[in-house]
Design goal:
single chain, mainly alpha, Rna Polymerase Sigma Factor, Chain: A, Arc Repressor Mutant, subunit A, 11 helices, about 70% helix
Length: about 200
């Protein structure tokens, strides 16, 4: 078997692992982490791209998020939640920090020794073209409009506008417990319509 065949076989083996198994294997095998990146990198870029005016910022946030994941691999506990929920929870924190500061924090990449990669305009345009942002937005908007008014309002405030539950409850003039129930119901209905939860975060705030 050639080196190329061996690598393809290794990729197939890694492709059969769950996300949690990939993260566990990544503690000793960098190829497992690379597979986790390949599996979720594009979706993560789409998550950031709709929140950033510049594609370079979205790309930097993807790099910073995966650097954070790499730095915190030993802390991941599959008994506490799905690997994607953990990944997008980290991403959401990065997005919040970016929104507050107006710049991408590079601290995680510094800790793991990853340099910032500045892409050319052509590279960024290609990445943008490969991610169907318009289609994702339209699909999500249609799914949101399929929710009842009160549930849609709660989900929009919590995730689209990124407000904490107390603020959601105050705006809608309901209790925080009711706000949480409406959001939970909305996420479940969105998952039924879209095949997955579009707001993939570990939402315990």
């Amino acid at each position: 078997m050639s080196v190329g065949d061996d690598e393809r076989a290794r990729r197939r083996d890694l492709g059969g692992l769950s996300d949690a198994e990939l993260l566990a294997a990544a503690l000793e095998d960098g190829r497992a982490f690379a597979e986790f990146y390949r599996r979720h990198g594009r979706r993560l870029f789409a998550f950031f791209r709709v929140r950033c005016a510049e594609p370079q910022d979205a790309f930097d946030l993807v790099s910073e998020t995966f650097a954070e994941v790499l730095d915190c691999l030993e802390r991941f506990d599959p008994d506490r939640g799905e690997a994607t929920a953990w990944l997008f929870g980290i991403a959401r924190n990065k997005a919040r920090r970016f929104a507050r500061r107006g710049r991408v924090d590079l601290s995680a990449r510094r800790r793991v020794g990853v340099r910032r990669e500045v892409l050319s305009a052509d590279d960024l345009e290609k990445i943008d073209a490969e991610v169907d942002l318009r289609g994702a937005r339209i699909e999500l908007e249609e799914a949101l409009h399929g929710l009842s008014g009160p549930v849609r309002a709660a989900v929009t405030l919590r995730f689209v506008e990124d407000r904490p539950y107390p603020a959601v409850a105050e705006t809608l003039r309901i209790t925080e417990a009711t706000a949480r129930k409406r959001v939970s119901r909305g996420l479940s209905q969105l998952a039924d319509q879209l095949g997955s939860n579009p707001f993939e975060v570990d939402d315990h705030e």
